From TrEMBL:
Start and end residues of each SsuA/THI5-like domain: 49-249
Main subcellular location: periplasm
Organism in which the protein naturally occurs: Salipiger mucosus DSM 16094
Localization annotation: Periplasm
Organism classification: Bacteria, Pseudomonadati, Pseudomonadota, Alphaproteobacteria, Rhodobacterales
Entries under PROSITE patterns matching the protein: TAT (PS51318)
InterPro entries: SsuA/THI5 (IPR015168), TAT_signal (IPR006311), TAT_signal_bac_arc (IPR019546)
Name assigned to this protein: Putative ABC transporter, periplasmic protein
Family: Belongs to the bacterial solute-binding protein SsuA/TauA family.
A Pfam family this chain is assigned to: NMT1
GO cellular component: a single term: periplasmic space
UniProt keywords, alphabetically: Signal
Length: 338
């Protein structure tokens, strides 16, 4: 039994335990009294830029809502926050909604937050990399499983017809260590998120040689999900939240300087040069920042194929069960988004 298999099994067991134990001029929406959208994010991450923009640019207030944001400290942790009624909205990896539902909780995805499995391959200047097949025989520096910096190259290598266990060596490292591993020669490649991709190009003399997520295509990498009960008992709160996210996504695509401004506020320890270097990657051919919050079936299928392929899902639950686009569709129509 390989170490990676044991890691996957332990990860899924832990997810099951937590769910089972807890069982611009935007139109204003009127509420009888102001409600607060209580939001639990996995960790503070650049991928969640639509959420931070909605908060920083007053989009929740435009909807008659207050907002409260807390970082849960891990990809699975927003689920217990919802189930214990300490949060209304979970912002994290979409697969967490499936695992929680498979354990008996009824979760539903209401808004797309990141539209690409945004993992980038970095290497020393002059390195040739044409696709996942070029990982063969090489050492790849990643974060520890179940980080997508590990699972996404694993999946891409498998899709390329290689054996991801035998044909590639993974150097699983703590946060912040992958870039140094490439710089000092311990690894041939690093697979990273932003801001690390731009830290690599601006501070480690490395190059982004491939965008794994762009090659995989549009995917609902990160989403907002809620309990099905919330959509039934407080639809105005859910609609106001989706409107705020839609307005933020529209503004980000209309004025990319907003991205820089909000990122600088939310990540004050990140060098502004890093944020500026990252900006084009958030608005590329397959944009990380969605154009609207609707979750398409294609985006869902891409994400599910990825997660199922690396063993992080407890069940394969259908799109029709797990996605409620009614709120996102109203928001998209209201703000004239395509």
């Amino acid at each position: 039994m390989t170490q990676s298999y044991m890691d996957r099994r332990s990860f899924l067991y832990a997810l099951g335990g937590s769910a089972g134990a807890l069982g611009l001029g935007m139109p204003r929406r009127a509420f009888a009294q102001q409600q607060t959208a209580r939001i639990s994010e996995a960790i503070h991450l650049g991928l969640y830029m639509p959420l931070y923009t909605a908060i920083n640019k007053g989009f929740f207030e435009e909807q008659g809502l207050g907002s409260s944001l807390k970082s849960a400290g891990g990809i699975a942790q927003p689920v217990p926050a919802l189930l214990s009624d300490s949060a209304d909205f979970a912002v994290t990896g979409t697969g967490m909604s499936i695992n929680a539902t498979a354990e008996g909780a009824q979760m539903v995805n209401i808004a797309k937050i990141a539209g690409q499995i945004s993992v980038f391959v970095l290497a020393k200047p002059g390195t040739t990399f044409n696709g996942p097949e070029d990982f063969e025989g090489k050492t790849v520096a990643t974060l520890k499983y179940p980080s997508n910096t590990y699972t996404t190259p694993y999946y891409a290598i498998k899709q390329a017809g290689l054996d991801p266990e035998a044909d590639v060596n993974y150097l699983q490292l703590p946060f912040g260590a992958q870039l140094q591993a490439v710089a000092d020669g311990r690894a041939d490649f690093a697979t990273v998120f932003e801001w690390d991709a731009s830290i690599g190009t601006t501070q480690f003399d490395l190059e982004v040689v491939y965008a794994l997520g762009e090659a995989l295509g549009p995917a609902v990498f990160s989403s907002t999900f809620v309990t099905k009960t919330l959509t039934e008992e407080n639809p105005d709160l859910v609609q106001g939240y989706c409107n705020a996210i839609a307005g933020a996504e529209k503004l980000l695509h209309e004025d990319e300087q907003v991205f820089v401004d909000v990122a600088t506020t939310e990540f004050p320890t990140v060098d502004p040069a890093v944020i500026e270097a990252a900006r084009p990657r958030f608005f590329g051919k397959v944009p990380i920042v969605p154009r609207n919050p609707i979750i398409s079936e294609q985006e869902w299928d891409t994400l599910i194929a990825h997660e199922d392929g690396v063993g992080t899902l407890r069940a394969d639950l259908p799109y029709e069960q797990m996605v409620d686009n009614s709120f996102a569709e109203k928001a998209t129509e209201e703000f004239g988004l395509s």
